[in-house]
Amino acid sequence: MSAIPVVAIFDVGKTNKKLFLFDENYQIVFEKSARFTQTVDEDGFPCENIESLRLSVFDSLSEVFRMKEYKIKSVNFSAYGASFVYVGADGKPLTPLYNYLKEYPEELSRQFYNEYGGKDAVSLCTASPVLGSLNSGLQLYRLKYEQPEVFARIAHVLHLPQYLSFLLTGEPVSDLTSVGCHTHMWDFTANRYHEWIQREGIAMKLPPIVASGKVRPALFPGNNYKVGIGLHDSSAALIPYLVNFHEPFILISTGTWCISLNPFNHLPLTIDELKSDCLCYMQYQGKPVKASRLFSGYEHEQQTKRIAAHFNTNGIKYRNMAFDADVIKGLKNSQPGAASFEERKLDGFRNDTEAYHQLIIDLINQQIQSTQLVLNGTSVKRIFVDGGFSKNSIYMHLLAIAFPDIEVFSASMAQATAVGAALVIHKEWNRKPIPNDIIQLKYYSSNQSTTI
């Protein structure tokens, strides 16, 4: 029996690190996950253990290469953004993998924005709100001024996905999905690096930008396989939708954050949009994706706990609570408006079903405003929702009612980020056409007997 041709995808999240093998039908035939104990940087702040991650890549690859039932044709990576690896001339990291949650020095921030035209000017140009260390370019700026001797020794500045690729190829490259992800580095108006990258002497340390679908020969021993250059995870998760759907759409990716992504909105960001937490990502074909964000998943988690505690119920029941149009009607007539559910007193609800429906109404009202920010000025025909809220019947029904002129679907797909990283190099490992059933859709009609 001949070995099954597969692609190996490393999907590196902040918490879980996973390895998947996909066959030519994009079915997962092998899966392995790991979690590493964090280490700390020189200031004692928690950060990724880059050495554990490096060893895990090599150990995992050695393991799958020993499996005679699979033939690894290609390898690719998706990983979280806003994280740099500073590589010396010997190919080894010079610093810890600094955490993007680390507080940014106020004085250094003030120095940067004073030098380059102010916060509004930089934000508009780079299509990103001011986010401190989450603007990963500012991590580079910080390293230059706080550790100039280390900065001088840097041979290559690599975002995390490209560092992982570099481990297997020895060839440093840059990728637009990482460079264009709220880094403060990319000038979206001129479609090149921002001027400060050149003026601060950083440009010479950045490897050339390579197209996301390119592959390189591998140095790490194995069969004759090729290695992709890696992708920023949010951009990777959008790829299956861009490959399968060509009519304008919005993807609402739900989790702790609910992010509305519109790849068909090419209007420049405004100051008001930036102040409403809008930004632009860069999709794998080098085009901007306007996005807006809400902290809805976190709020849902906290308020569900509050409801369960108040009504003395088990919070698990809310995961599968059915949509009830009559409850919605009653709430519309009995509940005054509020900025958020957090401001509501639970004594005003007859039971936890009412309270939970009101929570979702309030979250949807916020979601309407957030999604509208990236919807304006585009001819979007469909909204896809993936992640946690895609399985929430109340959320999906109310979202469909809120956008009656747009088709609303819940979308389910096993490991969208990893699938995206496999799809972008499809022709390098897969002899078959891309299947049209990668994404499972469920339609929610706006033809309900109530409004919100």
TrEMBL record:
A cellular component annotation (GO) from this entry: cytosol
Residues annotated as signal peptide: none
Domain of life the protein comes from: Bacteria
InterPro entries named in the record: ATPase_NBD, FGGY_C_2, FGGY_N
Domain Carbohydrate kinase FGGY C-terminal residue range list: 247-428
Keyword Transferase carried by entry: yes
GO molecular function: glycerol kinase activity
Entry keyword set: Kinase, Transferase
Pfam families in the record: FGGY_C_2 (PF21546), FGGY_N (PF00370)
Residue ranges constituting the Carbohydrate kinase FGGY N-terminal domain according to the UniProt record: 7-228
Alphabetical GO biological process terms: glycerol metabolic process
Family in the record: Belongs to the FGGY kinase family.
Record protein name field: Carbohydrate kinase
Provenance organism: Mucilaginibacter terrigena
